[in-house]
Amino acid sequence: MLKKLILLLFVVAPMTIFAQDKIAYINADEIFSKMPELKEVESKLATKSETIKKNASAIEAEYNALVDKFSKDTTNLTESVLLDRQTQLESLQKRYQDFLQTSQAEFQKEQQALIAPIQQKMRQAIKTVGDENNYTYVLDAATLLHIGSHATDANKMVKTKLGITD
Predict the structure, then answer these.
(1) Is 26 helix (H, G, I), strand (E, B) or coil?
(2) Which of 6-15, 60-69, 98-107 has the lowest mean pLDDT?
(3) Residues 153, 25: contact at Cβ < 8 Å?
(4) 126 exposed, middle or buried (CB, 10 Å; 0-12, 13-18, 19+)?
């Protein structure tokens, strides 16, 4: 019995030694929002958004002008003229809807293309901090329900790596 107990101690002891993982946590949203490159991205996206709004407004104005023109000229209209006008209006509506859909897709694609390098830079800084400090895990505090006293707050270290000053 004593031999079994000693054998169990030799098997369990190394496991408990290795179970002492170093864990750190960060607030990824806060860090990301303070990255200096984000201001340039937001500026580019705001410009793109304004361009889209201007173009959409131009199509709307064109549609409204056509509706006004057609509503003022109602004398001696044949059925073929009415159908032609209706087709023109429907075509313009479709063009407007297509423009909005295409613009939205382009905007999202550009947004992702601009943000991806910033996200990668943040991930690399987190990895570097983790490697330098021998953390087994660096977790996002927003997804954790409890953070124990043995976990380390690595926000400041990651911010320093990224050149963020509070």
Answers:
(1) strand
(2) 6-15
(3) yes
(4) buried
Where does residue 100 rank: exposed (0-12), middle (13-18), buried (19+ CB within 10 A)?
Answer: middle
Burial of 154 (0-12, 13-18, 19+ CB in 10 A): buried
Mean pLDDT of 138-165: 93
Answer yes or no: is pLDDT of 19 > 60: no
**Paired strand residues for 137:** 23
Is 0.90 surpassed by the pTM of this model? no
- For the chain, percent of residues with pLDDT exceeding 90: 72
CA 68 – CA 73 distance, rounded (Å): 9
- Determine which of 1-10, 89-98, 100-109, 140-149 has the lowest per-residue pLDDT on average: 1-10
User: How far apart are the C-alpha atoms of 117 and 110, rounded to whole Å?
Assistant: 12
Please say if the pLDDT value at position 2 is more than 80: no
Neighbours of 95 (CB within 10 A): 13
Q: How far is the C-alpha of 20 from the C-alpha of 55, rounded, in Å?
A: 59
Residue 91 three-state SS = helix
Cβ-proximal residues to 166 (8 Å cutoff; 6+ apart), any chain: 34, 159
